[in-house]
């Protein structure tokens, strides 16, 4: 029997509720596929921060580093100033654990869930590979003359050849392994960000030409990318982009696949501790009401098993999610599913 250790961070708001359902489904799947999953729960988030004034102790980072995978609910608390928990927990883990890829599949499971007219599941099935350790997210920059009329605020986008290259290589490999249209689209802004995206574009073509001749290379400006997401999402197979653009376009991606109730992502360090999460926030107004959709967290669990190499078990979760979403749910939005959070978890667990 294969055994895996999983660190669990329920986090804030509805995070613990959706993680509970994800674990319910993971356990049902583990039973069926003869796996042993050992959970280690970590109390991190706004409540702990308010209690201790510490977002994430160094000792916890050191412990988390030792796990192959981490399951995260959500980070963000209405009584904590925006930025403290996001930077102090989520971004710190992404950076310190070198989770340099943020992998975000955009897949429509039922035409009913898509806000776009006439788009069907076969039209919306692509993956965004978001660089997750650099760009505008490094915190490089600062203020000069803060609080005066001469104030200057600078926020720099950091793009290193090493960081860009490892992201591109991951994206090329992923496109090859996915084996669909074998097309990788670089989404950037070469017409304005003439330093950052010059590096990205050069590296993209150099690496592609030399090591991935079987993968078609395509380029789209990020603004045009959002247009195609709405007009022709079927054009995409895999998209690779920087941290900030990846953040923005994957919210739009989540909406065309049915919203935050279903969108999951993985913060991946191919050689280290990777962290899987629903991409939506902590949803304070739905907290504790048993109305939030746990499918995104359940899909994060699916990605986690896939990352561990348990492909069949992961596939079983996806198949069950599709069946439950299609046959049992009225809607994917919180409070409008026609089922409670726990019922959705029960349904998927009974279907895997
Ligand atoms: C996301 C979120 C985070 C990000 C925030 C909470 C820091 O929006 O995971 O997409 O910007 O990456
Ligand atoms: Mn985001």
Description:
With 352 residues, this protein is of the alpha/beta class. Helices cover 41% and strands 20% of the residues. The chain has helices at 15-33, 46-52, 58-64, 84-96, 161-178, 196-211, 222-231, 243-256, 295-307, 311-328, 341-351, and strands spanning 2-11, 35-42, 69-74, 101-107, 125-131, 141-144, 152-155, 183-188, 216-221, 238-241, 264-268, 274-278. It has a 10-stranded mixed beta sheet with strand order 2-1-3-12-11-4-5-10-8-9, sandwiched between helices. A two-stranded antiparallel sheet has the order 6-7. Helix 1 packs across helix 9 and helix 9 packs antiparallel against helix 10 (311-328). 47% of the residues are buried.
Quick structural gist:
The chain is of the alpha/beta class and 352 residues long. It contains eleven helices and twelve strands. Strand 6 (141-144) and strand 7 form a beta hairpin.
Annotation keywords:
352 residues; alpha/beta; ten-stranded mixed β-sheet; two-stranded antiparallel sheet; 12 strands; binds manganese (II) ion
- Overall spatial form: globular
Overall pLDDT level: 98
Which strand order spans the largest sheet, edge to edge or round the barrel? 2-1-3-12-11-4-5-10-8-9
Estimated structural class:
alpha/beta
Largest β sheet strand count, sense and barrel closure: 10 strands, mixed
Order of helices and strands: EHEHHEHEEEEHEHEHEHEEHHH
- The level of helicity is 40-55%
The total of helices stands at 11
Rg result: 20 Å
Distance between the termini: 19 Å
Which oligomeric form is depicted? single chain
Overall strand count: 12
Strand content: 15-25%
Identify every distinct bound molecule in the structure, by name, code or SMILES. 3-isopropylmalic acid, manganese (II) ion
Poorly predicted residue ranges? none
């Amino acid at each position: 029997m294969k055994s895996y250790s999983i660190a669990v961070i329920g986090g804030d708001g509805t995070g613990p509720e959706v993680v509970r359902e994800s674990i319910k489904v993971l356990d049902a799947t583990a039973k069926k596929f003869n796996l042993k999953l050992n959970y280690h729960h970590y109390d991190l988030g706004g409540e702990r921060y308010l209690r201790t004034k510490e977002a994430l102790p160094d000792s916890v980072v050191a412990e988390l580093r030792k796990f192959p995978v981490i399951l995260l609910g959500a980070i963000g608390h209405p009584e904590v100033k925006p930025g403290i928990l996001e930077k102090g927990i989520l971004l710190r883990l992404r950076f310190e654990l070198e989770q340099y890829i943020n992998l975000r599949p955009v897949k429509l499971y039922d035409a009913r869930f898509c806000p776009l007219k006439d788009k069907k599941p076969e039209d919306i099935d692509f993956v965004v590979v978001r660089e997750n350790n650099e760009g505008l997210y490094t915190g490089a920059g600062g203020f000069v003359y803060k609080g005066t009329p001469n104030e200057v605020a600078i926020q720099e986008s950091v793009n290193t050849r090493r960081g860009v290259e490892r992201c591109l290589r991951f994206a090329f490999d992923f496109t090859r392994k996915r084996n669909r249209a074998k097309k990788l689209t670089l989404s950037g802004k070469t017409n304005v960000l003439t330093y950052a995206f010059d590096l990205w574009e050069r590296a993209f073509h150099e690496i592609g030409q030399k090591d991935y001749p079987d993968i078609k290379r395509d380029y789209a400006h990020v603004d045009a990318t959002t247009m195609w997401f709405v007009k022709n999402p079927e054009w995409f197979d895999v998209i690779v982009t920087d941290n900030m653009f990846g953040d923005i376009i994957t919210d739009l991606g989540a909406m065309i696949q049915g919203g935050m109730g279903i969108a999951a992502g993985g913060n991946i360090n191919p050689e280290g501790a990777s962290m899987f999460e629903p991409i939506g926030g902590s949803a304070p107004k739905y907290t504790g009401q048993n109305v939030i959709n746990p499918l995104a967290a359940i899909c994060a669990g699916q990605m986690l098993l896939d990352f561990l190499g348990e492909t069949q078990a992961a596939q079983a979760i996806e198949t069950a999610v599709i069946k439950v979403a299609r046959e049992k749910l009225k809607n994917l939005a919180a409070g409008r599913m026609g089922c409670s959070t726990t019922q959705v978890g029960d349904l998927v667990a009974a279907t895997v």
